[in-house]
Amino acid sequence: MRLYKYRGFENLEFALDIFINQRLFAADFKSLNDPMEGRYIYSKGMLSKEEISRIRGRKSEFKILSLSETAVNMLMWSYYSEGHKGFAVGVEVLEDGVSIEPVTYVDDLKLNKEEGAISQKPYSRKS
Protein backbone atom coordinates (compact mmCIF):
# COMPACT_ATOMS: atom_id res chain seq x y z
CA MET A 1 0.00 0.00 0.00
CA ARG A 2 1.39 3.41 -0.97
CA LEU A 3 0.87 6.27 1.47
CA TYR A 4 2.32 9.78 1.56
CA LYS A 5 4.20 11.89 4.08
CA TYR A 6 4.10 15.67 3.68
CA ARG A 7 7.21 17.49 4.90
CA GLY A 8 8.82 20.88 4.68
CA PHE A 9 12.47 21.79 4.34
CA GLU A 10 12.51 23.98 7.48
CA ASN A 11 14.18 21.19 9.42
CA LEU A 12 16.47 19.95 6.67
CA GLU A 13 17.97 17.25 8.90
CA PHE A 14 14.59 15.52 9.24
CA ALA A 15 13.83 15.90 5.53
CA LEU A 16 17.18 14.38 4.54
CA ASP A 17 16.76 11.56 7.05
CA ILE A 18 13.76 10.32 5.06
CA PHE A 19 15.83 9.88 1.91
CA ILE A 20 19.27 8.98 3.27
CA ASN A 21 18.23 6.55 5.99
CA GLN A 22 14.88 5.58 4.42
CA ARG A 23 12.94 6.04 7.62
CA LEU A 24 10.16 8.15 9.03
CA PHE A 25 9.77 9.40 12.58
CA ALA A 26 6.87 8.07 14.65
CA ALA A 27 5.88 10.18 17.66
CA ASP A 28 4.17 9.31 20.90
CA PHE A 29 0.89 11.02 21.80
CA LYS A 30 2.59 13.60 24.05
CA SER A 31 4.74 14.83 21.13
CA LEU A 32 1.96 15.38 18.60
CA ASN A 33 1.12 18.92 17.52
CA ASP A 34 -2.65 18.42 17.72
CA PRO A 35 -3.83 18.40 21.36
CA MET A 36 -6.97 16.48 20.34
CA GLU A 37 -5.04 13.45 19.06
CA GLY A 38 -5.92 10.39 21.09
CA ARG A 39 -8.50 12.14 23.26
CA TYR A 40 -11.63 10.38 24.37
CA ILE A 41 -14.42 11.03 26.86
CA TYR A 42 -16.03 8.51 29.16
CA SER A 43 -18.89 8.72 31.63
CA LYS A 44 -18.25 8.67 35.35
CA GLY A 45 -18.55 5.11 36.65
CA MET A 46 -18.37 3.61 33.16
CA LEU A 47 -14.83 2.32 33.63
CA SER A 48 -13.07 1.00 36.68
CA LYS A 49 -9.81 2.58 37.84
CA GLU A 50 -8.00 -0.48 36.48
CA GLU A 51 -9.61 -0.07 33.05
CA ILE A 52 -8.72 3.62 32.93
CA SER A 53 -5.15 2.82 33.92
CA ARG A 54 -4.93 0.08 31.27
CA ILE A 55 -6.27 2.40 28.53
CA ARG A 56 -3.82 5.15 29.49
CA GLY A 57 -0.99 2.62 29.66
CA ARG A 58 -1.83 1.28 26.20
CA LYS A 59 -1.90 4.81 24.85
CA SER A 60 1.68 5.35 25.98
CA GLU A 61 2.77 2.24 24.05
CA PHE A 62 1.69 3.59 20.66
CA LYS A 63 3.87 5.49 18.23
CA ILE A 64 2.04 7.49 15.58
CA LEU A 65 3.14 8.11 12.04
CA SER A 66 0.65 10.26 10.17
CA LEU A 67 0.41 9.51 6.48
CA SER A 68 -2.06 10.41 3.76
CA GLU A 69 -3.70 8.26 1.13
CA THR A 70 -3.10 10.98 -1.47
CA ALA A 71 -0.24 13.20 -2.58
CA VAL A 72 -2.57 15.94 -3.83
CA ASN A 73 -4.46 17.10 -0.76
CA MET A 74 -4.31 20.91 -0.67
CA LEU A 75 -4.89 21.10 3.11
CA MET A 76 -2.02 18.69 3.74
CA TRP A 77 0.24 20.69 1.44
CA SER A 78 -0.71 23.84 3.31
CA TYR A 79 -0.37 22.49 6.86
CA TYR A 80 2.52 20.05 6.65
CA SER A 81 4.74 21.15 3.79
CA GLU A 82 5.36 24.76 4.84
CA GLY A 83 2.57 26.33 2.84
CA HIS A 84 3.10 24.33 -0.38
CA LYS A 85 6.90 24.81 -0.33
CA GLY A 86 7.90 21.34 0.81
CA PHE A 87 7.44 17.86 -0.60
CA ALA A 88 5.31 14.75 -0.34
CA VAL A 89 7.13 11.45 -0.39
CA GLY A 90 5.37 8.22 -1.27
CA VAL A 91 6.21 5.20 0.85
CA GLU A 92 5.28 1.57 0.46
CA VAL A 93 3.91 0.36 3.77
CA LEU A 94 4.62 -3.27 4.52
CA GLU A 95 2.02 -4.31 7.03
CA ASP A 96 4.15 -6.90 8.85
CA GLY A 97 4.18 -5.88 12.50
CA VAL A 98 2.49 -2.56 11.72
CA SER A 99 -1.07 -1.61 12.50
CA ILE A 100 -2.64 0.84 10.09
CA GLU A 101 -5.64 2.61 11.55
CA PRO A 102 -7.33 5.38 9.59
CA VAL A 103 -8.38 8.47 11.50
CA THR A 104 -12.11 8.70 11.97
CA TYR A 105 -13.55 12.19 12.36
CA VAL A 106 -16.47 12.22 14.77
CA ASP A 107 -18.71 14.81 16.39
CA ASP A 108 -18.45 13.17 19.78
CA LEU A 109 -15.37 11.63 21.42
CA LYS A 110 -17.40 9.56 23.89
CA LEU A 111 -15.87 6.18 24.57
CA ASN A 112 -18.21 3.24 24.76
CA LYS A 113 -17.60 0.24 26.99
CA GLU A 114 -16.52 -2.02 24.10
CA GLU A 115 -13.89 0.46 22.89
CA GLY A 116 -12.43 0.69 26.37
CA ALA A 117 -11.57 -3.00 26.17
CA ILE A 118 -9.87 -3.01 22.77
CA SER A 119 -6.54 -1.76 21.53
CA GLN A 120 -6.29 1.47 19.51
CA LYS A 121 -9.81 2.28 18.36
CA PRO A 122 -10.33 5.18 20.81
CA TYR A 123 -6.94 6.63 19.84
CA SER A 124 -7.68 6.99 16.14
CA ARG A 125 -10.65 9.34 16.43
CA LYS A 126 -10.66 13.12 16.22
CA SER A 127 -13.38 15.70 16.56
How far the N terminus sits from the C terminus, by CA atoms, comes to: 26 Å
The overall pLDDT, averaged over residues, is 83
In N-to-C order, the SSE pattern is EHHHEEHE
Placed side by side, the strands forming the largest sheet appear as 1-2
**What's the helix count?**
4
- Portion in helices: 25-40%
Radius of gyration: 17 Å
Shape: elongated
Summary tags:
single chain; 127 residues; alpha+beta; two-stranded antiparallel ribbon; two-stranded parallel sheet; 4 strands; 13% strand; elongated
Structure characterization notes:
With about 130 residues, the protein is an alpha+beta fold. It is built from 4 helices and 4 strands. It has a two-stranded antiparallel sheet. It has a two-stranded parallel sheet with strand order 3-4. β3 (about 105), α4 and β4 (about 125) form a beta-alpha-beta unit. The radius of gyration is 17 Å and the shape is elongated.
In short:
With 127 residues, the chain is an alpha+beta fold.
Question: How are the SSEs ordered, and which strands pair?
Answer:
Blueprint: E1 2-7, H1 12-20, H2 49-61, H3 74-80, E2 87-92, E3 104-105, H4 113-117, E4 125-126
